Structures are given as structure tokens and as C-alpha cells.
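G., the chain you wanted modeled:
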Amino acid sequence: MKILYLMWIDWRWIWQRPQILASKLALKYDVTVLFPQNVISRQKMQRNNLYPDKYKKAYVIPLYDKNLVLQSLMNLVIRCCIGDVKKYDVVWVGHPMFEKFIPADYAGRIIYDCMDNHAALSGSAVRGKAVDEEEKRLVSRSDLVFASSSLLKEKIEKYVSKPGTEVVLVRNGYDFKKIYDIDQGKIKASYKIGYIGTISEWMDYPAVIRSIEECGNIEYHLIGLVSGNNYVRKDKLFYEGVVEHDALYDKVKDYDCLVMPFMVNDVVLSVDPVKLYEYISFGKCIISVYYPEIERFGEYVYFYHTAEEYCRLIRELSLKGFPPKYSKESRDSFLEENTWDERFGKIVESIGKRING
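Predicted structure as C-alpha cells:
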């Protein structure tokens, strides 16, 4: 089976769902991947050579979506990079904007992997409405849809109109080759708190800064790409930049706690965060803002609802040396049930039933 895999993040971006699933699909099927690459990006990207055998880069111009002429030019570039869609048995779509590149008379199957609230991520109400319409058209044409969270599944099911289309919940997962020892916590004079992931507008800097000011014995280390101008200058707040995926544990092994201090908005509410699986695999104490999608992490994560609760948790846990909430046995069992191999098995099963069946 020949699959055209359309993803809308650079392959060298933080190693996550799009790259992981593309790599696994390429081991089983004949996969061609198309992904964008910013022509003048100043961000340090991961050195990632784990491409499928076939891949295509669509070079993109920054802010092209703000200009109609640049949009038309970019659409032409993408069409040329994609080539003849009809030679593929399946088109796997990772973002609604790709719907317009699939010919109306395409006779193959369409799979949509919905992993984000794309309308909420679009940056404006006007663009969000346009993305929502693109998504409705894509879902109406899709034979199979995977959703990474319960909220996204509920949303997508309302858009289904094609008879027989199935929407399957396939959450994110864990893909480290090693599970690390549990850090039991140790009382110290000062502590390092870490964050791993994209640093964007959802980062709750007010809560982070308040905790620094109220708890004099902590410092933060933020690992990952910074989106836009989301830097805040503050003593004891350090930006570590991009760290290679395989080198993450070496970077965080001396950290005392890992956090997910997010502002809960429409983007966050739809996310099944990969970082929580990774944090658990590192055996560290974990603190996260609470929202319904991640309630199932409650055995492993200390939740908070407000900045005041967050600071109180930091203070209380620091007095105990930031002990993890979970045991080795419960952690290992949870990770075994939530690997990317387990997720991919569910995807292959669904493809067999809906696409090959």
C-alpha cells in the first residue's frame, strides 16, 4: 500500500506524534512524507536523520499566511512538491489545510490524524473559522479519522457525514528505549525544576514567576523551542534551548521536579500531552495544571488549579525533597499500557478494518 503522509511541522522539530507515526508506518507500508522547512529559521533544530526512505521538503516562507500573494505562491510550491496524488492508495493528512491539495476525483482512501485544535491554534478568529471549515471538508471526505484526545474525538464526530467513516481515539504515547530509576527525592538547600516542550503562549509565566518570588530555593530550566517572542527575563529562569531527544534524560537527571505550568485554554484542553508520559518515564516528581483530559494521570502527577495552589505545592513538596507520587510498579505498568507500539497496533488494526477490509 502506497501512502502519501502530509505533515505540517518540520521533521527536525521536537520529536513527537507526526514523526513517530510516519517512521512506524514506513516500516510496514510504502510511505512518502512531505513536510515543511522554513527557509530562514533561526531556531536551533534537532539533528534528526531518521527519515523514511522517501521524503519531500516544502520550503516555506515565514508569515506567508499573512499575505495573499505569498499564500498563492506557497500553495503552488506545495502542489509541485506533492506531485500526482492519484498514484497513492492512501493520503494521510496531519492538518486540515492539506484538504485543498487532494483532487476532488481522488479515488483512494483518506486518513486524517487530528492531534490538535487547529482552529484555536490559528492565531485569529478569522483564520480559525477558515481552518474549521477546512477541517469539516476534510472530515467529510475521510474514510478513517484518528483523534489524540477525547475532546477532539467528540468534536470530529460532529463533522462526519460519509457513511462508514470511523473516528478512533488513539492517544499519544511513550517511546523511550529505557525506563529510568525512580528518584525518591532528597531534601536540599536549593532545587532545579524542569520543563520540556515548546515554549509558547500557553506557558503560565505569572505562576512560574510567582513561585520563584515566593520560594527562594528554586530555579527553572526550560528545555525546548521558544515560539515567537515568548521569552521572559527573570533571575532563576533559564532557557536551555533544544536538546536531542535521546539526550533528554542526561539533561534532566539532576532536576528535582518536572512541571507542566500551562494556562488552560482551548488549545490545552484538547491536548493529550506527550511530555507527561516522558516525565513519568524519567521517574521524577511531576506537577501539572489540571484539566479533564489528563485526569487519568492523577496517580502519577500532583495537580493544581490556580497559581496559588501551584506555589503551595512547590513549597510543600520542596520540604519533602520533591518525592514522586508513584511507585516503580505502578509506573512501569502504566508505561507498558501506553507505548507508541501499542498505539500503532491500534492504528494498523483500524486500517485493516476500514481501509483494507
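The first strand starts at residue 2 and ends at 6.

Shout if anything looks off.
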